[in-house]
Amino acid sequence: MKVKKFVAPTLKEATEMMKRELGEDAIVLGTRRIRQPGIFGFFKPDLIEVIGAIEEEKVKSKNESGADNAVELLRKMTNEIEAKRKNLFSDDGQKVEFEKYNYTEIKSELEEVKQALNELTEHLKYKGSAQYPSVLKKAFLNLVEKEVEEELANKIIRTVLMKLSGEELRDEKLVESEVINVISEILRFSKPVKPVRRKTFVLAFIGPTGVGKTTTVAKLAAIYKLFENARVALISADTYRIAAIEQLQTFANIANIPMDVAYTPEDMSRLVRKHQDKDIILIDTVGRNQRQSEHISELGKFIKSADPDEVHLVLSATSSYKNMLDVYNRFKSLLPNRLIFSKVDEAVSLGYILNVAYKTKLPLSYITTGQNVPDDIAVAEPKVIANLIYKEVLI
Ligand SMILES: Nc1nc2c(ncn2[C@@H]2O[C@H](COP(=O)(O)OP(=O)(O)OP(=O)(O)O)[C@@H](O)[C@H]2O)c(=O)[nH]1
Ligand SMILES: [Mg+2]
Prior knowledge:
Blueprint: E1 2-8, H1 11-22, E2 27-34, E3 47-54, H2 56-87, H3 103-125, H4 134-145, H5 150-163, H6 172-186, E4 201-206, H7 213-227, E5 232-237, H8 246-255, E6 259-262, H9 265-274, E7 280-285, H10 293-306, E8 310-316, H11 321-331, E9 338-342, H12 351-360, E10 364-368, E11 377-379, H13 382-391
Parallel strand pairs: 4-7, 4-8, 5-6, 5-7, 8-9, 9-10
Antiparallel strand pairs: 1-3, 2-3, 10-11
Helix pairs in contact: 2-3, 4-5, 5-6, 6-13, 7-8, 9-10, 11-12
The structure holds guanosine-5'-triphosphate (GTP) and magnesium ion.
């Protein structure tokens, strides 16, 4: 590995110097701010030192040739298998000495082919990661395994690379905590509203069927009433005129919280006005098929009439990334300004949360972690979410 230092007034210039001299594949091992020497140095701007490195031989053998080696190995094995197959048959195609052939041998050769193919796929899949020092590469693969989009995973790892020095990059624990820092920095978070007596906050919850809107509304209503001593009202926007409101009504009766049903957008604005003496109004909406745009625009009229302070789009953490983006695209006309990820307890991996939150640029408000009201909900705090995504632990 060739390592060299580059000093320039800005990080950009120093990095450009490094790329000019060491080439595009060079990586930054570390950066340092240098104070100008002498008394007068205090009055001069600091310089930036970049430690750049290029793995001359290794770059070749890892980048191009990780693939080349695997291809070469596959070619060799195919030839060997072909030669052995030929041995089984005479020139006129008749089968000869069949029993001589060793099946265990074929099996182990096939195993090797399989392994070589796996290596090849891994290599082609994560081509960019070959350039990272080993601890960072492990972190990158961990992100990708959690279903974080490759491009985003690369962005996170490159940020860590710029932040830590060459020595620090070998420290697995330090790299892990820096990855978690970077994740928490690239996401946005919103704080829960605090009830203040002079204003009524209106919060609406939208999203596809069955994601947990009603359960989340019940959890928040209970928390605000019990722990914050707030005056809470519930409104269910029933755009369908079906009995889907029963569930919330039952909860409202038990918790002794007033609940109304808005069957029209006019009902909605009237009911919001009716509850102006409350601290918080939580609006539950009946889930509709987001693929039917007329349902979404109908719901939009209810939301507009409520004129909410916050519109939380509830996405189930168990659904696919593609589905989450589809839901977002169809609901975005209702101007959601918060994201809730529900059913985190049932999700296999949580990288999608990062992908969707990063792509939509919406702040996260809550995650929900089970069916229990009001326990299974947590405020989305930067470190909580980052740890959850990267280490799959709820701290
Ligand atoms: N495991 C798990 N289940 C949840 C969570 N939140 C809600 N559920 C369950 O998901 C199911 C649907 O929840 P609802 O709150 O009725 O969902 P909804 O979005 O109101 O559904 P619709 O009103 O039909 O659109 C219920 O069985 C809930 O108990 C969660 O965080 N984790
Ligand atoms: Mg519901």
